[in-house]
UniProtKB/TrEMBL annotation:
Pfam families: AAA_23. This is AAA family ATPase. Residues 183-220, 259-286, 642-683 form a coiled coil. Keywords: Coiled coil, Membrane, Transmembrane, Transmembrane helix.
């Protein structure tokens, strides 16, 4: 047989599951672990309905929008894609009529094993015999119906007991009866006959009276026994009826809702509300002392994020600005020091130096002047030294002054004195000029020297040189000035750059501060503190943090509104001024009560069904409950308590026992008298009567044979039916017995069917005590092991389809659990097995037995591939 297994499962929308995918699912044992409410029960419903589609009105969890499931299945290397949408029939690609070759009811009864299935009362289940015991039994169970039909045909001829005075026997009986009466008239002549006849009649009357009395007492006993045996059920029925009538409104108005669906909505609503409360609390705590304009903050949040990134760049720019500004400041100090060191008369005045138009042309010009000056001076040294000229100049001046003095003291006329002094000085000047001209050579040379000296002086004045400096010194001085001017130029360029830098930073800072102020109600952002970039960054980060928290609050508020709309839509309630929390709590409580009432109604139906068949002799009609209630109430009028009724039952049992003995004694005495009476029937009249009686009996014989044929056929069918059941019991339960023996480690070696197939009970034979126990006598764990064994044996007789086991091993002891896991291990080689559990002990046992398994962790509808040890840790 070829294994069919699920390779991939995508759950788009189903209860707690939203867009969840499980890939590369193993074709052997797949263990899915999760705590309560993780989604295991929902997964079970998905897997059991997957190949057949979803049915309305079931216990399915509600979808978020519309049910949507996809699956990839493999069979003999062929892949099939299955899509299930809403309540539609599954779409299979490539097209195939059906993947699973058994009906949905059989698959759910056999291949999806949970505690409910292992604990269910099988007597109330339809077709469970065929499902658990296999094909053939369904046909065999039809045999009793055939037997009833044959008996019905026989009853048409002679009734149930074959009474000759009834049905089709009656005409023949009447003829025979008339002849018997004639025969009795003929025998009246004989006194002995009459005496015996009289005695016989008296006996028959006594027997008839006793039988009638016996039947009357038996009917009363049957009625009382039925009431006593069903008293507890009746009291429970009255209690249930009272509860149902009291809460009829709840049952009528809330039975259409799913408790799980409301619980899912309730949990989702509480989760979102708690998350909203947490987000709002975080926002309120963060915003304490901040008068934030929430609307502007949300509108500007994206821009604030951008500015936050900008402010980090601005911070670096400020760092660069400070470094550059410090460098410029130090450079300015250095330049001033250089200027002062060069010439203290400049007083560090950079503007003065920058206004000096000195350059390397000055140096060239100074070189040229110096060269020329030196040439002229060399030429002068050839005609006389400067020292000699100076001595002559001194001598002339002294002589002029001396002669002028002598003339002044000797002449009294002032005008003459004045004129003499003027003439004297003109003569001295002319003399000096002549000597000077003679010393310098030509007039041009003299002018040139004077011009050069004036030029040198101009340069000194412009350069503020107060000391005598050589031309080489001036050249070096100018070179120093040019170098300093170059540094000043560089400094001024950097200064301009710093100023622009400062301006750009200020513009950006003002933009940021302006944007921050827009997010406050009173725009009370401290501008003086805002000069600190750290202060701005703190404010920005605080606003962004507040913005994101406020955005989260808005998102969760929207989620809460959508959740409320979904809840009110599901509950079919108009929005209005209703409190969703109160409505949910009320519906949850009422739906829970409605489910309890539905269970009570089912229990009521079962009790009524049981009581109906207990009172088969009563004409209950349609109003079964009222009729049963009247029967009990009618009997209770005659008895003070149920104990009095029980004592009456015991007395009637003893009376029936005694009267049965009496009737048997009377019948024996009647038989003796009948034999005596037959000996007296010898006259000729009697012979004719006997001939007529014989003829009538011969005519009646074919009808009697036909009646016998029907009875014989029904007897043979009953015998064959019972023989078939007796021979098939061991064969049918052979594999189940082997599995049960392994699970119980040899404690029970054989499973047997109960005496009544319709009862669907099993007996287990103990290998130690050699006793047979019904399932009612077994412990809960052993009973579950028994029904698991029967299901596994049937699974092994069918095509290998996926098996789902949902925490149905929790009541097994450690030894039985290990034995069961060994069997599941072997089963997984033939069938894909999904084992759903929340118990770490089970997974630990699988890990210790080194069973090859694939593990998934399930948490709130989300699957995570894992290993056994990690899954044990998560569930512990």
């Amino acid at each position: 047989m070829i294994k069919l297994y699920i390779k991939r499962l995508y759950i788009g929308d189903f209860g707690i599951y939203k867009n969840e995918t499980i890939k590369d699912i193993n074709n052997g044992l797949v263990v899915v672990g999760g705590v309560n409410r993780a989604g295991k029960s929902t997964l079970l419903k998905i897997l059991k309905n997957l190949p057949y589609g979803l049915s309305k009105g079931g216990d399915l969890p509600p979808p978020n929008d519309k049910y949507y499931i996809e699956a990839t299945m493999e069979k003999d290397k062929d892949a099939y894609n299955l899509k299930l949408e809403g309540y539609k029939k599954p779409v299979i690609t490539p097209n195939i009529e059906e993947l699973y070759n058994i009906d949905k009811y059989t698959y759910n009864e056999l291949f999806t094993i949970d505690l409910d299935l292992l604990n269910n009362n099988l007597r109330e289940r339809k077709d469970i015999q065929t499902i658990l015991l296999g094909a053939g039994f369904k046909e065999v169970l039809k045999v009793p119906k055939i037997i009833r039909e044959i008996k019905k045909e026989g009853n048409k001829i002679g009734g149930i007991q074959g009474n000759p005075s009834s049905k089709q026997f009656k005409p023949f009986f009447n003829i025979i009866n008339r002849n018997i009466k004639d025969r009795e008239e003929a025998l009246k002549e004989k006194d002995i006959y009459l005496q015996i006849k009289k005695e016989l009649k008296e006996l028959e009357n006594q027997i008839e009276i006793s039988v009638l009395e016996k039947e009357k007492k038996e009917n009363k006993l049957t009625r009382l026994e039925t009431i006593v045996n069903n008293y507890d059920d009746y009291i429970r029925l009255r209690e249930i009826e009272g509860k149902i009538n009291k809460e009829k409104y709840i049952l009528d108005n809330y039975k259409g809702f799913s408790k799980e669906g409301i619980e899912v909505l309730k949990n989702e609503y509480e989760r979102i509300k708690n998350e909203l409360r947490e987000k709002a609390l975080v926002y309120e705590n963060l915003s304490k002392g901040e008068q934030v304009d929430k609307k502007n903050l949300l509108n500007n949040l994206e821009e604030l994020e951008y500015l936050n990134k900008e402010v980090y760049g601005l911070r670096e720019q400020i760092k660069s600005y400070n470094v550059l500004n410090n460098e410029n400041y130090n450079e300015k100090k250095n330049i001033i020091n250089l200027i002062n060191n060069l010439n203290s008369a400049l007083k560090g005045n950079m503007n003065y130096l920058m206004n000096l138009e000195c350059d390397y042309l000055w140096i060239d010009e100074l070189h040229n002047l110096d060269q020329k000056y030196k040439e002229l001076r060399a030429k002068e040294e050839g005609k006389g030294s400067l020292r000699n000229r100076n001595l002559i100049y001194i001598f002339v001046i002294i002589m002029t002054a001396f002669t002028s003095y002598l003339f002044i003291i000797s002449v009294k006329n002032n005008l003459s004195k004045f004129m003499f002094v003027i003439v004297q000085f003109l003569i001295s000047g002319s003399f000096i000029y002549i000597i000077n001209r003679l010393s310098y050579g030509s007039e041009e040379d003299y002018k040139e020297i004077r011009n050069i000296e004036n030029k040198f002086q101009e340069y000194k004045d412009m350069l503020k040189l107060e000391r005598e400096v050589t031309s080489e010194g001036m050249v070096q001085y100018i070179k120093s000035i040019i170098a300093i001017k170059e540094r000043i130029n560089n400094f001024l360029l950097q200064e301009k750059k710093v100023l622009q830098f400062e301006k750009d930073i200020e513009i950006k800072r003002e933009d940021i501060v302006k944007k921050i102020n827009q997010c406050y109600i009173n725009e009370d952002f401290n501008y003086s503190e805002a000069t600190s970039i750290d202060y701005i960054m703190d404010k920005l980060e605080k606003l962004i943090q507040l913005g994101f928290k406020l955005k989260e609050v808005e998102i969760y508020l929207g989620n809460l509104n959508r959740c409320e709309e979904k809840i009110l839509k599901y509950l079919n309630i108009s929005k209005g001024n209703v409190k969703v929390q109160d409505v949910l709590e009320e519906h949850y409580k009422n739906v829970e009560l409605s489910n309890e009432l539905l269970e009570l109604r089912d229990e009521k139906d079962k009790i009524i069904y049981k009581l109906k068949y207990s009172f088969l002799r009563e004409d209950l009609g349609k109003d079964v409950y009222d009729k049963i209630n009247n029967i009990f109430q009618e009997e209770f009028k005659n008895y003070g308590s149920i104990d009095e009724m029980k004592r009456e039952v015991e007395e009637l049992l003893q009376y029936n026992k005694n009267i049965k003995i009496t009737i048997e004694s009377l019948k024996e005495e009647k038989n003796k008298l009948s034999l005596k009476l037959e000996g007296l029937q010898k006259s000729s009249i009697l012979e004719k009567i006997e001939t007529q009686i014989s003829k009538t009996r011969s005519d009646m014989k074919p009808l009697a044979e036909k009646y016998a044929l029907y009875n014989c056929a029904s007897y043979i069918l009953e015998k064959a039916y019972n023989d078939f059941i007796d021979k098939s019991k061991d064969h049918i339960l052979n594999e189940a017995s082997n599995i049960f023996n392994k699970i119980t480690n040899g404690e029970y070696d054989k499973l047997l069917l109960g005496d009544d197939l319709l009862d669907m009970d099993f007996k287990s034979h103990s290998s130690h005590s050699n006793l047979e126990k019904t399932t009612g006598e077994l412990s809960r764990g052993t009973s579950e092991q028994l029904f698991l064994s029967v299901r596994l044996s049937r699974i092994l007789s069918l095509d290998p389809l996926p098996v789902i086991i949902d925490d149905s091993l929790v009541n097994f002891d450690s030894s039985s659990l290990k034995s069961t896991l060994h069997i599941i291990k072997e089963l997984s080689k033939r069938n894909q097995v999904f084992l759903l559990t929340c118990h770490p002990k089970l997974i630990q046992c699988i890990d210790e037995l080194n069973i090859d398994s694939q593990y998934f962790m399930l948490d709130k509808g989300s699957f995570t591939p894992t290993d056994g040890k990690t899954l044990i840790s998560c569930l512990s």
